[in-house]
Amino acid sequence: MCLLAGGRAVPSSLVPNPVGGAYKKLGRGGEFPTVINSSIHEKCPHLLQLMKPDIGNGNDLQRIVLVRSMFGLLLNKEDRLLDVLSILQELLCSPTSIEFQFEIGEAYKFLLEKVNDLAAEVNLQIVRNILRNINSNDSVTRAAWTELLLEAIDYLPKGLLLSEILPEALKKARAGESVLAKITGSKFLGRQATRLDEADVRSYIVPVIQALCKDTDAAVRASASKQIPVIAKALKLKECLPLLMPTIIDLSTDESDLVQEANLEAVVFFLNNVDNGNFL
């Protein structure tokens, strides 16, 4: 038997050994736990019942062990996976260590990247959980979830990008938002550019990036300028030169060295591609 928080006895077979080799740490060369056998699957509903009270009251090691085991066991059980996602979001809204947040983030990343046949509602729940966490008051936590979402954009279905990520990016990039929000918004917009249709890029992303390139803050202008080469790749049209070149010309006289450096990258990108005939 093994005692979790609250003094509840749990069969040892239900609690994986975090150092025994059964589970390897995500993001460090290992794979996510995928221990599958019939006896564990039979006990899975019981473990799920234990999870909510014990994961909330236990220490971070117990929480991390349970997180690693639950996702591996529930990959083919979307109904219970949704329950787990809901419980984890409750925990993320309460005081938790950054290590625990990283662990959940890596689990989300694994599900989005490796499991291509996730039910639509599971994908949606993961995305909404991540979106709730990118506005954390803790700068380290906020940065970690922001980077996770940037990576997740590469794996999300296009429909989710349009319905969930694009509106959030446009919201953060609005005039009147904080400098940090605008920078984050510009990164989200640039990352999505190669995933969306050209018409959506021209309609939603280009005008906002152009506006951010005229922002009063140099850091915002620099971040927006860095997205121009990515947007140009996404358009793959002759029109991208007349569409984006006026912005590049304006930025070439910017008083900020940070902006000048970012704009130079865009200039080099266009020169290389014009030489290669990509825009002719």
Automatic annotation (TrEMBL):
GO (cellular component) term, any one: cytosol
Ranges for domain Phosphatase PP2A regulatory subunit A/Splicing factor 3B subunit 1-like HEAT repeat: 201-257
UniProt xrefs under PANTHER family: PROTEIN PHOSPHATASE 4 REGULATORY SUBUNIT 4 PPP4R4 (PTHR21467), SERINE_THREONINE-PROTEIN PHOSPHATASE 4 REGULATORY SUBUNIT 4 (PTHR21467:SF0)
Protein name: TOG domain-containing protein
PROSITE patterns, per database record: HEAT_REPEAT
Keyword field contains Repeat: yes
GO molecular function, one term: protein phosphatase regulator activity
Extent of the HEAT repeats: 205-243
Annotated family: Belongs to the phosphatase 2A regulatory subunit A family.
Keywords: Repeat
Highest taxon in the source lineage: Eukaryota
